[in-house]
Amino acid sequence: MELAFALVIGVLTASGVYLLLKARTFSVVMGLTLLSYGVNLFLFSSGRLVTGGQPIIGSTETYSDPLPQALVLTAIVIGFAMTAFVVVLSLRSLADHNDDHVDGDMPELPTPKHEHNDEQDIEKGEARS
Q1: Are 35 and 16 in contact (CB under 8 A)?
Q2: Digit-coded pLDDT (tens) for 85-125
Q3: Topology given in CATH for the domain delimited by 2-50+65-106
Q4: What torsion do the CA atoms of 97, 98, 101, 107 make, to the nearest 10 degrees?
Q5: Worst-scoring range by mean pLDDT, 3-12, 49-58, 106-115, 117-126?
Q6: C-beta of residue 49 within 8 angstroms of C-beta of residue 1
Q7: DSSP secondary structure string, 53-72?
Q8: Alpha carbon of 80 to those of 24, 28, 74, 85, 96: distances in Å?
Q9: Tell me, what DSSP letter sits at residue 66?
Q10: Structure pTM?
Q11: pLDDT above 60: residue 75
Q12: Which residues contact 20 (CB under 8 A, 6 or more apart)?
């Protein structure tokens, strides 16, 4: 079970960082969300993954630490508020700048190649062979 948790934490963190490095606001919001999910799972797994353990010391031989559970619950609430704030901020940026790039710079579009017109060459006296 620890290996599965470690793999899920690694995948969530890696995909969150990858999405954070994109230049679009939706990708950044999703990256922050996935990164916070990875951190929440890491905090939750730091309390020794025990199934059926009670969070009260002395009542059973094995117990689960209640502190990581409380931290994760708090982090979920803060993460939801942060996500709502970032979504509103990105919508405002989209409305102000008419694009969804994070840095505000529009990427340069490739210039269209000049189309060759045979009629212009005939008028100039040049013929294509």
Answers
A1: yes
A2: 999 988 888 888 888 887 766 666 677 676 655 565 566 66
A3: Helix Hairpins (1.10.287)
A4: -100
A5: 117-126
A6: yes
A7: -BSSBTTBSSB--HHHHHHH
A8: 20, 15, 10, 9, 24
A9: H
A10: 0.68
A11: yes
A12: 27, 28, 31, 32, 35
Looking at residue 103, its pLDDT comes to: 73
Residue 33 has pLDDT above 60, yes or no: yes
DSSP state of 85: H
Coil, strand, or helix at residue 9? helix
Q: What is the CA radius of gyration of the chain?
A: 27
CA atoms within 13 A on the CB side of 102: 14
Helices 66-97 and 25-45 cross at an angle (nearest 10°) of: 180
Instruction: Determine the residue type at 67.
Output: L
User: How many other β-carbons are positioned within 10 Å of the β-carbon of residue 51?
Assistant: 7
Asked whether the beta carbons of 25 and 92 are under 8 A apart, the reply is no
Give the residue extent of every domain in the chain.
Answer: 2-50+65-106
Q: State the Cα torsion 15-17-23-24 to the nearest 10°.
A: 50
DSSP state of 46: T
